[in-house]
């Protein structure tokens, strides 16, 4: 999606912008606006308007990045909330993406911040550390369902935001390529997940040069590959999953110490690079563009590729409708089974005089029924745990022609997302991730082409990476 590249952290926040403002027609074109998130797409009835009362409603503002038209569409969603009760009136404030954080900083300086709004994933902890966000720890007390624990942004033990949508990293694969090669599909059940070595061995069977030779066979020509077996997305933030899987990580559990220099972390990154450099099962990728599924599965050049769950809705539905066949599976693992959760944040700013009312709006706004177009299309996944635990809700979500078969998607996505393998991406608890990821991305540039090793590159820049984690330039 268009905003994803600007964020540099994935597609989630972009989906949040477009999802609640689209036309609700399940448009699945790549880089297009997402389907409507309005309640009119909900499988349940819209709330009835409460009787008129003489008491004046508390007025709160909700900020979002987007055009005036997108803001108008989001206001239509807010109007459904406004009509559902007689205590709160929500006004949507749309700010162009390019000016969004600048505008918020200006409003903060003038003590004129909105009551609540959207926040970039990589800005939540920084704003919280500066006292700009309210504690939302009690927001779901008394509710029959709350967001998955892995979707809470936490600072000093307090929940300061919840993701507006859930996303996890998956393994996608081209079923036709597997069938042609006579190779069993990747496992969709976590207990049967492939080891890294099994993943590489399978990728070799699916990698062909122009003579039909595979890596390791006599006569194989790595310069004339016509089909690759695998691609592991190496955008910086997604690499964290592999460092964690190998027993390392980017940071300590509280986000205050850098672990990227540990052998387990550098080894994991090198294994990803070696898919191209040594194993000859993956195309060259330099970690710069957020269009991995389009460049691999959809392009018809790669048999399996890792990336986020949002790709079902943003690109794979249209590809499937054109007569192609894909599946979803759990990620392979090195030592520990790991996938990452992520999702753009909704916050309540500390300058508000109405924190309770702001939280009431966010709780309503974040209900799946009010963003059903995004969920039913496969761009978003639900945040509330009832959609993962109660099969009545799961069927309502997953028994859907936009998705792969129910049992496959349920095990590879629904069950996977609430398993012990699902861990929050580091911006859920770590400050200064923008600077850290930017520096790490540039540090790894020569690793992908084989000019240096991951260990040497990271060791050379380790002190600078530690400084970036502390917010030091």
UniProtKB/TrEMBL annotation:
Record region (Disordered): 26-57
Keywords of this entry: Signal
Compositionally biased residues, Low complexity: 26-44
Biased composition, class Basic and acidic residues, residue ranges: 45-57
Keyword Signal among record annotations: yes
Taxonomic superkingdom: Bacteria
UniProt keyword Signal, yes or no: yes
Range of residues in the leader sequence: 1-22
This protein's name: ABC transporter substrate-binding protein
Organism for this UniProt entry: Cohnella suwonensis
């Amino acid at each position: 999606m268009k905003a994803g590249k600007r964020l540099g952290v994935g597609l989630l926040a972009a989906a949040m912008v477009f999802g609640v403002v689209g036309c609700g027609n399940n448009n699945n074109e790549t880089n297009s606006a997402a389907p409507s998130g309005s309640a009119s797409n909900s499988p349940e009835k819209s709330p009835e308007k409460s009787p008129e009362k003489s008491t004046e409603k508390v007025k709160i503002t909700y900020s979002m990045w987007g055009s005036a038209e997108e803001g108008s569409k989001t206001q239509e969603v807010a109007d459904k909330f406004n009509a559902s009760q007689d205590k709160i009136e929500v006004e949507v404030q749309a700010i162009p993406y390019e000016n969004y954080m600048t505008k918020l900083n200006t409003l903060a300086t003038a003590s004129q911040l909105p009551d609540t709004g959207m926040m970039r994933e990589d800005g939540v902890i920084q704003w919280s550390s500066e006292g700009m966000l309210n504690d939302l720890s009690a927001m779901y007390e008394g509710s029959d369902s709350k967001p998955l624990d892995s979707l809470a942004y936490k600072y000093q033990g307090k929940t300061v935001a919840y993701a507006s949508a859930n996303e996890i990293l998956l393994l996608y694969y081209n079923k036709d390529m597997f069938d042609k090669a006579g190779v069993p599909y990747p496992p969709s059940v976590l207990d049967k997940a492939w080891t890294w070595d099994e993943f590489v061995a399978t990728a070799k069977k699916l990698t062909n040069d122009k003579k039909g030779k595979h890596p390791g066979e006599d006569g194989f020509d790595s310069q004339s590959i016509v089909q690759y077996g695998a691609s592991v997305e190496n955008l910086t933030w997604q690499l964290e999953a592999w460092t964690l899987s190998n027993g390392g990580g980017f940071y300590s559990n509280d986000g205050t110490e850098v672990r990227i220099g540990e052998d387990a972390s550098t080894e994991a990154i090198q294994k990803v690079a070696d898919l191209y450099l040594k194993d000859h099962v993956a195309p060259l990728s330099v970690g710069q563009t957020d269009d991995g599924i389009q460049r691999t599965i959809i392009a018809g050049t790669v048999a399996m590729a890792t990336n986020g769950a949002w790709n079902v809705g943003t690109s794979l539905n249209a590809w499937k409708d054109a007569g192609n066949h894909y599946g979803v599976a759990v990620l392979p693992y090195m030592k520990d089974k790991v996938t990452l959760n992520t999702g753009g944040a909704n916050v309540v700013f500390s300058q508000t005089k109405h924190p309770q009312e702001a939280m009431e709006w966010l709780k309503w706004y974040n209900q799946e029924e009010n963003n059903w177009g995004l969920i039913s299309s496969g761009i978003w996944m639900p945040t509330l745990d009832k959609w993962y635990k109660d099969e009545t809700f799961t069927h309502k979500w997953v028994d859907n022609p936009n998705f792969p078969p129910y049992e496959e998607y349920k095990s590879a996505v629904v069950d996977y997302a609430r398993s012990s393998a699902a861990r929050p991406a580091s911006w859920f608890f770590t400050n200064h991730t923008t600077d850290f990821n930017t520096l790490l991305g540039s540090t790894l540039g020569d690793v992908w082409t084989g000019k240096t090793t991951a260990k040497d590159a990271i060791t050379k820049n380790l002190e600078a990476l530690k400084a970036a984690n502390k917010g030091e330039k």
